[in-house]
Amino acid sequence: MTTSTETWNEEELIQTAQRGNLDAFNELILHYQSQVYNLAYHIMHDPAAADDATQEAFISAYHAIKKFRGGSFRAWLLRIVTNACYDELRRRKRRPKVSWEDFGEMEEEANPHLVDDGARPEESLEQVELRALLERTIAKLPEHHRTTLVLVDRLGLSYEEAAQAMDIALGTVKSRLARARQEMQALLQEERELLPARFRL
Amino acid sequence: MTQRNWSTVEVSAYLDGQLEPTLQATLESDMAQDPTLHRRVEELRQIQDMVQGMGLRVPPRNYLLTPSMVAAPKTESKRRRTPLLMMRLATSVVAAAFVVTFGLTAVQRGLLPSMMAQTQDAPGEVALMRESVERAALPPTEAEAESFKSEPAQGVAATPAPEGTVPAQEESARAPLPEAEVEMPAEETAGVLGMGGAVEPEEEPVPEAGAALVPQPTAENTVEEPAVELMAEPVEVPEESATDDLVISEGYEPSDDAEASAEGRAGENAEAVPDTIVETLSQRRPLVTTWLSVGLGVATLVMLAITLWMGRRRLD
């Protein structure tokens, strides 16, 4: 299994995976798992749930890869994880399993994802705090606005890819993204004292 | 020169380079002239920069798949799904049966009143059939008692019956039937009316004043019925008893012969008009379908609840 960028050929890997080659599919997983996990994290706002959703999405994608008919593979993959997350959210709404109080009482050691807040060694304290603030703010957005903002501004998808990932029209992406940015602005205004000086609105 | 009122969607699209070139040029021109618009665009750009500059979270692990991971869950899912699918199918079938039965019940209930009205209005054969069916359905003793009901009005019941016999016209005269519908020989009828008794059975009856009130025998509606000795004296029944109420005269004591004759008549009628029995059954059918639809409705609800419960269990 080769992972170097020199040999990276997405189309060929997809075709090989479509013939049932698991190694080829794992190559694709290694390339996209960070984006898939981050999207799941922002939709679920729960590291453990995002972890489960990511794994489920990759298994579903492997079973469905024969149905992939070209286009953006990334958008197709992100659509699968988006649907998996929405399904899980609907399931949780029907029957909440763990209350926030119970979640708070859990020991951090029991859930390593709570200890690892995603901070990198090279990140300064300011960056860590800013990231935490932005993540909290994004979590307050409505579900569809949040997904659109993450897809375009966080993961760098084009409008067309975002439309494909969410199975919506291009105009809807535009309007949702504009509203999401506007809402982010309003929410950050309320906490502008927590923002670094260069970002104060 | 009035400026265009730029929407947030347009400003947001401008930041991503998704605005049309002409609009983009116009917006930049307006920004140069309008500091408020310029500030608005910059604030939104700052939000975009912040979100884009956040950096991605590092996934807690690799999500590489193994052959067991891609094989096991599918079979497990199939195994768990089969009973649910069967239950859903069964629920659908029962629900469809309920809808059909309920529809049939509604149709029958809607049509029955008009059918009954037609039966009441229809003279002659339909009324005769109903009469025969009712008599056939009665137990022997009731049928016997029925034979003693008489209609005193119209000059028929007042006429004494021949010695030791109960003429069939008593039965026909019991109910105010509009037209000829009696199982009575024409000769006896003529005698009762005092018409001389010389009328031949084969002849067409002459319509007279009392003809509408007295049953007229015809080839179709006359059923030959043997005269049976039932009682020694004629029985007078009060006028009120000319209704459907069953009234047995005090002087009447059913004999073995009478019972036998009633049984024989009932059996004869049942054999003679099998179609009318079918009609009786069809009249009972609405009740059957009603209970059937109620049962199916209950079954549908129960199965639906079980299916929902199974579905939820599978999701959990």
Condensed summary:
The complex is a heterodimer of chains A (201) and B (316). Chain A is an all-alpha fold. Chain A is built from ten helices and no strands.
Major β-sheet profile of chain A: none
| Beta-strand content bin of chain B | under 5%
Q: How many distinct folded domains of chain A? A: 2
CATH 2nd-level architecture of the largest domain in chain A: Orthogonal Bundle
Identify the biggest protein-protein contact and residues per side. Answer: A-B, 54 and 37 residues
- Report the average pLDDT across residues of chain A: 84
SSE order of chain B, as H and E? HHHHHHHHHH
SS-based structural class of chain A? mainly alpha
Number of helices of chain A: 10
The number of distinct β-strands of chain A equals 0
Beta strands of chain B, count: 0
What coarse outline of chain B follows from CA principal-axis ratios? Answer: elongated
- pLDDT < 50 runs, ≥5 residues of chain A: 103-117
Helix content of chain B: 55-70%
Count of separate DSSP helical elements of chain B: 10
Q: Which features would summarize this protein structure in a list?
A:
heterodimer, A: 201 residues, mainly alpha, Rna Polymerase Sigma Factor, Chain: A, Arc Repressor Mutant, subunit A, 10 helices, 0% strand, B: 316 residues, 59% helix, elongated
Structure notes:
The complex is a heterodimer of chains A (201) and B (316). Chain A is mainly α. Chain A folds into two domains: 7-116, RNA polymerase sigma factor, region 2, helix turn helix motif (Rna Polymerase Sigma Factor, Chain: A, Orthogonal Bundle), CATH 1.10.1740; 122-201, Winged helix-like DNA-binding domain superfamily/Winged helix DNA-binding domain (Arc Repressor Mutant, subunit A, Orthogonal Bundle). Chain A has helices at 10-18, 22-44, 47-64, 73-94, 100-105, 112-115, 125-139, 143-154, 159-166, 170-190. The radius of gyration of chain A is 18 Å and the shape is elongated. Mean pLDDT of chain A is 84; it is low at 103-117. Chain B has 316 residues and is mainly α. In chain B, 59% of the residues lie in helices and 0% in strands. In chain B, 23% of the residues are buried. Chains A and B meet through α2, α3, α7, α8 and α10 of A and α1, α3 and α4 of B.
